[in-house]
Design goal:
three-stranded antiparallel β-sheet; 3 strands; about 5% strand; WH-like_DNA-bd_sf; TF_FadR/GntR_C; DNA-binding; transcription regulation
Length: about 230
Amino acid sequence: MNDTQSLYEKVRSEIKFNIINGKYPMGKRLKAKDLAEELYVSRTPINKALSSLYDEGLLNYNRNVGYSVRIITVDDIEEIFKIRTALDVLSFREASLNMRENDFLYMRRLLDKADLASKNGEINEIRAAAKLFNEAIYDFADMPRLTMIIANLNDYLEVLRKLSFDGRSENSRRKLSIEEHSKILDLMEAKDFNSLEEFIIKHLEGSKKYIIGESYKYKDFVLNEKEEDINEE
C-alpha cells in the first residue's frame, strides 16, 4: 500500500467512525473543505473517502448541497430488524448447538461486564460488550456466509446500537437488554429452541420500537427520506 492509499484509508476510517458514533449526525452536510481542515489533509483523499462512503450507503449526495450523512428512516429500521430477526433466530440456534460450558461462561462474563458498565454509566463500554456478545454468537454459529451477510449490515447495526444504548429517555433499555440477553443464554443452554425463537422475536421487537421512539428525538430524523428536507447548515 502506498502513502496515498494509506492516507485515504485513514481519512475514510475517521469519517466513517464519526458517522457511526454520531459526531456527524444524520442529515449533517459534510463539506470537503471543512473536513480537510479538521483532518489536516488535502481535499483529494476527502473527496475519495466521501465517494466511497456514498457507495456504501452511509451518505447521500445532492448536486445542490453535496454530501450529507444518510438519514435512517423508520422504513430502514423496520427492514433491518426483519432481516436481523431472521438471521438471529438462525445464528443463536446454531451457536447453541456448538457452544460448550466454557463458552456459556464466557458469554455470561460479557453480560456481567455490560451490567457493570451500565451501573457506572459507561455507555461506550456497554456498546462494546454488546457488539462482542453478538460477534461471539455469530462465531459460535460457525456459518461463514451468515457472517458475511451480517458484516454487510454491521454499519447500520452500529448506528442502531448507539440509538438503543445512548437513549435519552429515562426508560432506557440498557438494563432490560442485559436481562433479556441473560434469558436468551438460559434458553440456548437448555436447547429450548421454540422458546428461544419466541423470545428473540420479542426482544428484537421491543428493541425496534424503542429505537424508533429514540430516533424521533434527533432533529434531522424524518419518516421518509427526502433530499430536499435536509437543511443546509
